[in-house]
């Protein structure tokens, strides 16, 4: 009687392994189930953004007395000329290093657009961004020097809340648009 027991244990072990490896191939009743083939989901690639280029640009800030512009460099990433101009204007709002002050920091940028060499900058000017005549002149000078470093920018138009304003802060008359001078 020992011989049948000797073969029963290996058969039970083999049955257990076969059942474990078979996984989903049997139903509860013990009969084999046929599974419908499953469809492999297709992955649609996300639209890719254009490759970003990197540039070192000049950004202009003011000294503490608003007597002189302080040129500093900033590293920016951009996808095209319109994005380059927008990133340059946003860089005006960054903290300057050392004695350099950003007069653009409290100014809210609503939009920056480039079309045929004309940059249109639309801003909102909160009360805390309003300065005296030297400060207003420096705000405009910082924008002009930052934008006109790019050869493709021929002019810019500064709008306040979507409208051309006679003056930014009441001291200096704005041109619509301000055109690059022949000396530059």
Key features of this structure:
184 residues, alpha+beta, 5-stranded mixed β-sheet, two-stranded antiparallel ribbon, 3 helices
Overall shape: it is globular
User: How much helical structure, as a percent, in the residues?
Assistant: 25-40%
The profile of the biggest β sheet is:
5 strands, mixed
Number of H- or I-type helical stretches: 3
Through-space gap between termini? 110 Å
* Fraction in beta strands: 15-25%
Q: What ranges have pLDDT less than 50 throughout 5 or more consecutive residues? A: none
Total beta strands: 7
Output the structural class. Answer: alpha+beta
Mean pLDDT: 83
> What pattern of helices and strands is seen along the backbone?
HEEHEEHEEE
Radius of gyration: 35 Å
Oligomer: single chain
Describe this structure in words.
With 184 residues, the chain is of the alpha+beta class. It is 26% helix and 24% strand. The strands form two sheets. Strands 3, 4, 5, 6 and 7 form a five-stranded mixed sheet that branches. A two-stranded antiparallel ribbon has the order 1-2. It is globular. The model has no long low-confidence stretch (mean pLDDT 83).
